[in-house]
From TrEMBL:
Domain of life: Eukaryota
Keyword presence, Signal: no
PROSITE patterns (UniProt xref): COX5B_2
Name of this protein: Cytochrome c oxidase subunit 4, mitochondrial
Protein family membership: Belongs to the cytochrome c oxidase subunit 5B family.
Residues that, per the record, bind Zn(2+): C108, H116, C131, C134
Swiss-Prot/TrEMBL keywords: Membrane, Metal-binding, Mitochondrion, Mitochondrion inner membrane, Transit peptide, Zinc
One Gene Ontology MF term: metal ion binding
InterPro entries, alphabetized: Cyt_c_oxidase_su5b, Cyt_c_oxidase_su5b_sf
GO cellular component: mitochondrial inner membrane; respiratory chain complex IV
GO terms under biological process: mitochondrial electron transport, cytochrome c to oxygen
Length: 152
């Protein structure tokens, strides 16, 4: 008999009581029931009609659809406006960066704009960051909820 079989044969009686003492649990499922709550807006498009090429709006899903729906409402859902480069931010008066996420990546080009190459900075919600090229200080203006800040 091999060494492995001997070990398994010796361990088997010790494992049996553990396996037998574990209670059996039946798994079951229930159907979802409908409620009177309003449905959230769909992030899936209706798709194209048979025999036709769908438009961008009809086939867009996810973030692309979210952006198209925002454009239809006249809302810039991804704030792409440049940061204030008319001044250099200081520790007492930093350049505030709006964010709904607890971390944002920003690019500094100096003050006045384009006075140096882009320096990319990770800007967390709980501390200020400064550009190593021009010294401008940035701080996150976090607008999200407290629960979202702890998603990691």
């Amino acid at each position: 008999m091999s060494l492995l079989r001997c070990a398994l044969t010796a361990a088997r009686p010790a494992l049996r009581p553990t396996l037998r003492s574990a209670p059996l649990r039946a798994l079951s499922t229930t159907l979802r029931t409908s409620s009177d709550h309003a449905k959230p807006p769909s992030i899936f498009g209706p798709g194209g009609k048979a025999g036709e090429v769908p438009t961008d709006f009809e086939q867009a899903t996810g973030l692309e659809r979210f952006e198209l729906l925002g454009e239809m409402e006249g809302i810039d859902v991804f704030d792409e406006t440049p940061l204030d480069s008319s001044r250099v931010g200081t520790k007492k008066d930093p350049i505030m960066v709006l964010s709904y996420d607890p971390m944002r990546v920003i690019g500094c080009t100096g003050s006045p704009a384009d006075s140096h190459d882009i320096i990319w900075l990770n800007l967390p919600k709980d501390r200020q960051r400064f550009c190593t090229e021009c010294g401008s200080v940035y701080q996150l203006d976090y607008q999200g909820s407290a629960e979202e800040a702890h998603h990691h």
